[in-house]
Amino acid sequence: MVQNKVMGLIVQKYGGSSVADADGMKRVAARIVATKRAGNQVVVVVSAMGDTTDELIDLANQITPIPIGRELDMLLTAGERISMALLAMAISNLGHEARSFTGSQAGVITDSAHGRARIIDVSPGRIQEAIKEGAIAIVAGFQGVSQDTKDITTLGRGGSDTTAVALAAALDADVCEIYTDVDGVFTADPRVVPTARKLKSVTYEEMLELAASGAKVLHLRCVEYARRYEMPIHVRSSFSTNEGTWVVKNQPEGDIMEQAIISGIAHDKSEAKITIVGVPDRTGVAARIFQAIADADINIDMIVQNVSAASTGLTDISFTLPKSEGPNATSTLQRIQGEVGFASIQYDDQIGKLSLIGAGMRSHPGVTANFFAAMSEAGVNIEMISTSEIRISIVCRAADLERGVRAAHTAFELDGEPGEAVVYGGSGR
Prior knowledge:
The protein has a domain at 8-181: Carbamate kinase (3-Layer(aba) Sandwich), CATH 3.40.1160.10. Helix content is 33%, strand content 24%. The protein is built from 13 helices and 20 strands. Helix 2 (52-63) packs antiparallel against helix 3 (69-93), helix 6 (204-212) packs antiparallel against helix 7 (220-229) and helix 12 (367-377) crosses helix 13 (401-411).
C-alpha cells in the first residue's frame, strides 16, 4: 500500500500561505531538508508568496484595464521566481545545496494560451541532473514556456498543483506531496462546517468531482493529470506533521469496509446563472446558442431546459457559468438574439452550488430523497439539479448555501468532533 512505501524521489509543492513570509520560508526549508536527510531525493514546486499574484494583477490593472496577455504572464511569473530564489537561499543556509529553476528551465512545455496555458510535455533534464548531483531542485510553479512562440506562459489558478504532478509523473516520483494550510481533504470546508472530518483517502474519481464542484484544496487539472499517470497525491499541511489525505486510484482495502455513502460535500459561490427566456422550441436552436457560447471560449456547468408550452412553442433554457464570464456570455447572446428569436436574457449572480460526492451512492438508493429532505428542512429552495454517477449538485440562493452545506453534512452523518478541522493559514490552499 502506497502509504507504507519507503520513499526514494519525492516531489513536494508548497502553496502561497506556506511561504507567505520569511518565517514561513524558513519553516518550509527545514521541512524540505528533513525530507532530504531521511534519504530521499527531493524536488520542490513553490507558489508565489502569500497574495503576491493578486497584488501583481492589481498593479497591472492600475496601469491598464486590459493588460496584454504576454506581458501579464511575464509579470505574474515574477512572484514564483521570488519564492524559488528565497527558498533556495533558506535551504543553503541550512547546509544543503539547492538550485532554483523557472518553469522554462525545468522543461515545462505548454501551448501558447496566455493566462491559461496547458502543459504539453515535461522535459526535466536539468532537474534530473541537479538531483543526481545531490542537490535539492526548487521549481517555480504556475508557469512554463510555449512550444510554438517560446514565450513565458502561466497555467492559471492552481497551476502550481498541476506543475507538481506533471513533474512527479515525468520524473517517475514515488509520490507528489501537496502542502497546504489544512491537514488534508475534509468532508466539507472547515470554515463552513467546524465539525468536518479529515478523509484518510479518496479516489481520483471522487477528488475530480470535489474539485470540479468547488472544493479548493486541489486544482481540477492537477487531479486529472494524477489520474492519467496514476500518481499518488498526499495532501497535507505544512504547518503540522499530521498524516494527510491520500488521493489514489482505489480505496485501500481497510478503508472500503468503512467507506461512507458520501465522501464529501463541496460548495461554490463563484458561479452565475443565465436564463434565456422564450426560446423557439425547434431543432438546432439550442445547438446555435451553445455553439456561440463555445466560440466565445466560455465554460458552462449545469444546463436545464423547460418543457415548451404547447400554446406558444417556446421554452426557457438556463445554464450556470463562472461569474467572471457573465458579461462576455450576455453580450454574446445579445448578438445572436435576432437570429435565434428568443425574447430576453436574465442574469443572476446571487446563486450557490452545493454538491454531494461519494462512490458509495452507486449502491445506496435513497440518497437523492434524503438530500432533498435535508434541504427542505433547512429551508433551502432548489433551483437547478445536475447529477453524475457519484455526484448530485443543486443550485440555490447564495444566502442559503452555507446553511445547506451544514444541513447536508449532518444528514449524511459526516460530522466529527469539533476542532478536528484546523485551518492554519487562511486561504485553504
